């Protein structure tokens, strides 16, 4: 009995093991089948995706080609429209310019015809007469007096035309002469202005030199007066009477220096005023000559008169400057000898400075 039970128990164990093996095998087969089917599904899906992408690329390329062709057609159409529009504008502008030029030409020709109306009428009558004569031949007889009158009128018209041409030529020559004279006048005016400017600069330089020399003259004399006053206070060389004379000398020299400075200042002011007046007059004459200003004057005569006035004023002013130089030289020499027969270094310095000033003014 135990043996039977033992066999039965071991038989059931074997059957369970076989069932487990069968179940495992079935599960493995199912896994393999599921993996293979998944692989097939993925492969079919990737093939479909590639096909869809290729189809989409073809469709998109076709759409792009169609849109590009439409844009190209539109661009060509716009270029053609712009070309036609620009050509229309150019033709319209050309027609407008041509009409305006025709109107201007017709106006000028009408003016010329109206000027020579008598001559044109004579020529028209003669042409009509010749045309009628050629058309009718010798059938119509014309009076000789009428022909002679026409010929005389034609000769008079030709003579008037020749006179007008000669007058035009003479006027052209006169205009050329006026232009040449105007150029010469401008050159003369420029030369006169340059000469006046040079002379004014020379006069101004001489006045500035005179002012500088007077300034240099005043400073050493004031220093000499201070030295003499110091000697007087110390009581080293001279007494009471001589010290009073030396103290009075610088005061007299200061008044003389002030007078000379005022004279030079007046000369400088006069130089500036006269130079401004001459410049304004020359500018006015140039404006009158060029027609910018209206005045009943002869520019050539006024220019000669202005030159004479300038020369006379220049001579007068030069003589006054020379007189002023002489006075300044006298003042300088008088300042050197005001102390009598002095043998001090101060008197030697004054004499040397007086020689320096005279060399500057000469």
From TrEMBL:
Domain of life: Eukaryota
UniProt-recorded name of the protein: Uncharacterized protein
Record carries keyword Coiled coil: yes
GO terms of biological process kind: actin filament organization
Flavoprotein among keywords: no
Biased composition (Polar residues): 222-236
InterPro entries: IQ_motif_EF-hand-BS, P-loop_NTPase
Region (Disordered): 217-247, 330-362
Keywords: Coiled coil
MF terms (GO), sorted A to Z: actin filament binding; microfilament motor activity
Coiled coil residues, start to end: 147-195
